[in-house]
Amino acid sequence: MNYSFQTRVQPGSSKNEVTPYEGGVKVRVQAPAVEGKANKACIQFLSKLLKIPKRRLKITRGEHARQKEITILETDRAELKRIKEVLGLLKP
């Protein structure tokens, strides 16, 4: 199964980090929003954070906008629960 979530990307940040944000997550990346560098940095950062290969992460909406939809390909329930915990998307 595939899992999609909403992301707000903030390029040019002082450090890479992710925080919960209005029904999704806010991803701050150090890379500038020039020639797709922030998108690439976002995927690379999420890949390391979530411990999944970059090839399984796709920007499915908002390639040229700050609001994006990220899709994780070929995930299962156990991995999905772990991903939601890491991103802070599970309700307490």
Account of the protein in words:
This protein is α+β, with helices and mostly antiparallel strands and 92 residues long. It has a single domain, classed as YggU-like (Conserved Hypothetical Protein Mth637, Chain: A), CATH 3.30.1200. 27% of the residues lie in helices and 32% in strands. It has two helices and five strands; from the N terminus they run βββαββα. The longest helix is centred in the middle third of the chain and has 14 residues, at 37-50.
Instruction: Give the N-to-C terminal Cα separation.
Output: 24 Å
Tell me the radius of gyration: 12 Å
Q: Assign an overall shape.
A: globular
CATH architectural arrangement = 2-Layer Sandwich
Overall average pLDDT: 94
- Which structural class is indicated by helix and strand composition? alpha+beta
List unreliable stretches of 5+ residues: none
Looking across the biggest beta sheet, what order are the strands in? 2-3-1-5-4
CATH class: Alpha Beta
What is the string of helix and strand elements? EEEHEEH
CATH structural fold name: Conserved Hypothetical Protein Mth637, Chain: A
Strand content: 25-35%
Q: Provide the domain count.
A: 1
Percentage of residues in helical conformation: 25-40%
| Main sheet properties | 5 strands, mixed
Number of continuous helical runs: 2
CATH superfamily: YggU-like
Strand segment count = 5
